[in-house]
Design a protein that fits this description.
This protein has 253 residues and is α/β, with parallel strands linked by helices. It has a single domain, classed as NAD(P)-binding Rossmann-like Domain (Rossmann fold), CATH 3.40.50. It is 48% helix and 14% strand. Strands 3-2-1-4-5-6-7 form a 7-stranded parallel β-sheet, sandwiched between helices. Helix 5 links the parallel strand 5 and strand 6. The structure holds NADP nicotinamide-adenine-dinucleotide phosphate. The site of NADP nicotinamide-adenine-dinucleotide phosphate has 32 residues, from helix 1 and strand 2.
């Protein structure tokens, strides 16, 4: 994908990985629109990077996704890059799953339904542009599930599957389809403090941008890159070890 002169829409761009990507896209000479539910996070981001454009939107809701598409394409008709980054993560013990279905289905609505629907909305528009990209953020857990986040891991496998089909269906168009598989990265995903053990955000984002520049289409980092090339047995073994480690560190789970 070309790295400058794009108009980039980043979902969940007010914090974490989305904001780190927004900063780098701006530095390289792109226009960037960030979207999220919390206006104060978007405002904070805009104070830091005044060139950013912001829009409050709850992407778990179908009507808000359609309104976002209409708003973006009318205010930023040059839009040609969609970064499907917004996501949530919930720890779920299936032996104590006493919440209502609304609680559990949130992860599916935002992580999967939001991403697929936005992709379908933007593809026909992107076909009218000369150059376009869809960048989907899945996870190393798409390849090797984290048993403590079973619904989240399933949503990320779904993102990986959908992205793979999308790439094949769009191979004879000028829309490139990129998937980023972050490993654990130090952001507030799942709640503040839960990912402090993860990779530093800036090193992760710098490495991903180097891979964008190279034109790579499936991009991991450190542990998640290894998972992409591991055997099924290695991933199953790794999953069991991680689950045992999680239970040791979280005996009340
Ligand atoms: N950090 C990691 O260890 C890690 C590892 C693998 C994959 N990832 C993936 O990376 C992506 C970014 O996560 P992050 O680590 O940067 O965490 P984060 O800082 O919590 O970012 C998630 C972003 O998504 C937005 N979002 C959540 N629900 C939304 C909704 N319904 N509508 C619109 N925006 C919504 C959030 O903004 P609002 O709350 O304001 O809406 C937030 O800005 C996610 O897809 C995550 O699954 C992260």
């Amino acid at each position: 994908m070309k790295m400058a002169g794009n108009t980039v829409l980043i979902t969940g761009g007010g914090s974490g990985i989305g904001l780190a990507f927004a900063e780098r896209f701006l530095e390289k000479g792109n226009s960037v629109i960030i979207v999220g539910r919390r206006e104060e996070k978007l405002q904070e981001a805009k104070e830091k990077f005044p060139e950013l454009h912001t829009k409050v939107c709850d992407l778990s809701k179908q009507e808000e996704r359609v309104s976002l598409f209409e708003w973006v394409t009318s205010h930023f008709p040059d839009v040609n890059v969609l970064v499907n980054n917004a996501g949530i993560q919930q720890r779920v013990n299936v032996l104590k799953a006493t919440e209502s279905w609304d609680y559990y289905s949130k992860e599916i609505h935002i992580n999967v339904e939001g991403l697929i629907h936005l992709s379908l909305l933007f593809i026909p528009y992107f076909l009218t542009r000369t150059d376009a990209s869809i960048i989907n953020i899945s996870s190393g857990l798409a390849i090797r599930p984290g048993a403590w986040v079973p619904i989240y891991s399933a949503t990320k496998s779904a993102v990986h599957s959908f992205t793979t089909s999308l790439r094949l269906q769009l191979e004879n168009t000028h829309i490139s389809v990129v998937e980023v598989f972050p490993p654990a990265v130090n952001t507030d995903l799942g709640g503040a403090g839960l990912h402090t053990f993860g990779a530093p955000l800036d090193s992760f984002a710098d490495s991903i941008f180097e891979r964008f520049e190279k034109g790579d289409l499936e991009i991991g980092y450190e542990d998640s890159e290894k998972r992409l090339h591991a055997s099924r047995e290695e991933n199953e073994e790794g999953m069991k070890k991680a689950w045992e480690g999680f239970l040791k560190g979280n005996p009340d789970f």
